[in-house]
Specification:
The protein is α/β, with parallel strands linked by helices. It has a single domain, classed as Spore Coat Polysaccharide Biosynthesis Protein SpsA, Chain A (Alpha-Beta Complex), CATH 3.90.550. It contains 8 helices and 11 strands. The strands form 3 sheets. It has a 6-stranded mixed β-sheet with strand order 3-2-1-4-9-6, with helices on both faces. A 3-stranded antiparallel β-sheet has the order 7-8-10, with no helix packed on it. A two-stranded antiparallel sheet has the order 5-11. It is globular and about 45 Å long.
Length: 225
């Protein structure tokens, strides 16, 4: 089973693309796409950062959430630490999915099952195929992967990713101090890579970050809005 730990903040990121001007509409569409992708079958833990004056966010997730943690942390680093606390103290799933609120999921009801199988195999994955991997002109190791549902894909070994990623509970507990390393996502994943744990991402992304010029290639993501 997957435990999803979702972080929500009512402010639109400075790096967001121009598909939305209203943050709640963005979060609502991303969350509904997550549910359609099988997220409704995961154990859902939610962090609401500075949402006290925005009750619509709690109303959106409450029917599905096992646990909601509310606070006024006001910084990404602080909520990441809360995310890891919940992973250690509350999560019961064998696989942990750490999810930011601005990720739109592919219309594939088996996506969570696919991510779970891939994570159990690779140990550290992201559902997001970062467009920057292609612009950096890095050579990446590629491997085919067959899912139990009859579908298949090619996964790439990546150097870094965002703070939307999945790992097994066992690996997280074994390397918990390493996951806390650095103030930025690239620092965390570079450090994990140096210590022998590399993240893998699917060529056909299961989800995309709604960041400007960083949407995953090869899929009509706007059709999911």
């Amino acid at each position: 089973m997957i435990t999803t730990i979702l972080r929500i903040n009512p402010d639109i990121s400075q790096t967001a693309n121009d598909w939305y001007t209203d943050k709640f509409e963005m979060v609502r569409d991303c969350f509904n796409s997550f549910l359609r992708a099988g997220g409704d079958k995961t154990e859902l833990l939610v962090i609401l950062d500075r949402c006290d004056t925005h009750p619509e966010y709690e109303e959106l997730v409450k029917p599905y959430a096992k646990h909601i943690r509310k606070g006024n942390w006001g910084s990404k680093r602080a909520t990441i630490e809360v995310m890891y606390e919940l992973a250690h103290d509350v999560a019961t799933g064998d696989v942990l999915l750490f999810l930011e609120d601005d990720y739109l999921w592919r219309n594939e009801p088996r996506a969570m099952q696919m991510l779970e199988e891939a994570t159990n195999h690779w140990k550290l994955t992201s559902p997001y195929d970062h467009a920057g991997h292609y612009r950096m002109n890095h050579a990446h190791e590629l491997h085919p992967f067959d899912y139990s549902n009859g579908l298949s894909d090619v996964w790439r070994r990546a150097i870094t990713a965002t703070h939307t990623f999945a790992t097994t509970k066992e690996v997280f507990e074994q390397r918990r101090e390493q996951f806390y390393y650095g103030d930025h996502d690239w620092q965390q994943f570079t450090y994990l890579h140096i210590n022998g744990l590399t993240i893998w991402t699917p060529i056909h992304a299961l989800a995309t970050h709604l960041a400007k010029n960083c949407e995953s290639f090869g899929y009509d993501w706007k059709a999911e809005i």
